[in-house]
Design brief:
By secondary structure, the protein is an all-alpha fold. It is built from four helices and no strands.
């Protein structure tokens, strides 16, 4: 049985060209079509809600990852500054060593100061190694 547009059904019933049983049958068909459309819409709404939940989870994860990235970047920036300071100290030490080699006269005070500076550099390098989680500085430098 074909379903006619509801306006046509109502017009034909109103003009007495369609009896009550036929009008009721067509009305039931329209109700069935509406129910199927509602059922499909509800299913699509559930699917869209699930997709939205997945996307919200992804956004939350990405925001967390970005925050961790910022913290890591800030930490690496600080470590880079420390590394630059260490390089500057090492350059000064190298210049002093070169100067001392030329004069070949190191007194006890200069040797103590040089030894303390070398220990300070080693301590900073150990600290950087611990912060970066590297087991061996030379191994990570090779990589």
């Amino acid at each position: 049985m074909a379903t006619y547009p509801i306006e046509q059904i109502m017009t034909e019933y109103g003009n007495a060209r369609m009896d009550v049983e036929m009008t009721t049958g067509h009305a039931l068909q329209h109700i069935q079509l509406l129910y199927q459309a509602l059922k499909t819409a509800n299913q699509q709404q559930r699917e869209l809600r699930n997709q939205l939940n997945v996307l919200e989870t992804r956004v939350s994860t990405l925001q967390t990852d970005e925050q961790r990235y910022r913290k890591l970047r800030d930490k690496l920036t600080g470590l880079d500054k420390q590394l630059q300071a260490i390089r500057a100290k090492l350059n000064r030490l190298w210049e002093r060593q070169t100067e001392y080699d030329k004069t070949d006269r190191l007194d006890k005070t200069q040797l103590t100061a040089l030894s303390l500076t070398v220990h300070q550099v080693k301590a900073v390098l150990d600290s950087l190694t611990d912060q970066l989680g590297v087991d061996d500085v030379t191994a990570s430098a090779k990589n």
